[in-house]
Design goal:
62 residues, two-stranded antiparallel sheet, 1 helix, 18% helix
């Protein structure tokens, strides 16, 4: 009972918005710091620090 990645327990979607080639950058939805994503991206964007912290909070303990 596993999916293609071999992990049947982790349901976290790791899809990310496309990285920006340069400014303007989207603001982080948590701390308002610049992210690595384009300002034109519609959706939730996190800066590298908040992205790492969110990954730590939601990591599978498998």
């Amino acid at each position: 009972m596993s999916d293609e990645s071999g992990n049947a327990y982790c349901l976290i979607d790791d899809a990310r918005p496309p990285r920006a080639d340069g400014p303007p950058y989207a603001a982080c939805v948590l701390c308002q710091e610049p992210t690595e994503y384009p300002d034109s991206y519609k959706g939730i964007t996190l800066c590298p620090v908040c992205e790492w912290q969110e990954a730590q909070r939601t990591a599978c303990s498998g």
